[in-house]
Amino acid sequence: MATETSRNRCPVTDINVLPENCIANFLSLTSPPETCRLSLVASTFRSAAESDSVWERFLPSDYQDMIARASEPPVFASKKELYLSLSDHPLIIDDGTKSFSLDRRSGKKCFMLSARYLTIIWGDTPEYWRWISLPNESRFTEVAELLHVCWLEIHGKISTQMLSPDTTYAAYLVFKWAARVIGFRFEYKPAESWVRLSGSEGQSRSFHLDTNGRQRRERCVVPRRRVCHRNIIRRRQEVDALRESGQYPKERGDGWLEMELGEYLNKSGEVGELEICLQEVKDGNWKSGLILQGIEIKPKISTPVQNRWVISEGRQLEKWPHKYPTIKVFNYFGIDK
Predict the structure, then answer these.
(1) Domain segments of the chain: what residues?
(2) What is the DSSP letter of 166?
(3) 156, 113 contact by CB (below 8 A)
(4) What is the 3-state secondary structure (H, E, C) of 95-148?
(5) Which CATH architecture has domain 117-299?
(6) Which of these, 80, 38, 89, lies nearest to 58 by C-alpha position?
(7) Which residue did the predictor score with more confidence, 336 or 36?
(8) What are the pLDDT digits (tens) for 190-208?
């Protein structure tokens, strides 16, 4: 009985005897973060994790076309180096009107439409908007500065075929404030935006391009009089809730602000143009001081933490509830749960 049971059990695999191309093929079925983690788990994985065959799978299928459209094509010695370069340094493509980059964790494609590429109502009227250069701050040669309008409306379009399939994208207004800002206070009516496929109905969302969101929160921290303590705490909670829900701008790592305009699920095989619109027109109040870099379209990715199977230096597969999720590899090596 014991002999028959041991025969039916799948033997533990010594990963050091596996050929490098086999390990490389396995790594290419995971993700960039998991490949980097596994390269530290066992020495056998280290060289395979550096191979071009692995990182070629993580790059989008049209990456060569994107490089050909770049103003300054990247210089790279390996596909891994190219992947990391596209994650950290966006390529300026299509005569400086767009930028292309990769989401570092997933390899999904990201694009930013420059302000010059967008349709800005009254954007070509010098009394209302002016075009300036911020060489050390913006990735594009020109940005648009709002001088004086009562009707703020911005449109952008991008082909869904340029985006990664089966991916939920979000569009963000990327901007900052000039030294003097008028007409973007919380007391005014909120702006509206939508992101939708051309010719279809999309749900609009409301938000505040509020210059004093942070100061308002800080001023609500310590009440001056006991009688107003509850009201101040309530106001602070309301502001925090709006910020967390995406109804206030958030700071980016590059020094700009971003405001989410909406999201869109790019289904595989769906062909069309994705339309993005921002409007702040209901109040009719005059506005100035907005500096617009563009609209960025990037994936919204959520990776849940769960129990996964990992490879240990003991050369066997173990189930490990690790806070850094790796990969399910038991099926690849023929080992059952």
Answers:
(1) 12-108+318-337, 117-299
(2) S
(3) yes
(4) CCCEEEEECCCCCCEEEEEECCCCEECCCCCCCCEEEECCCCCCCCCCEEEECC
(5) Sandwich (2.60)
(6) 80
(7) 36
(8) 889 999 999 888 788 988 8
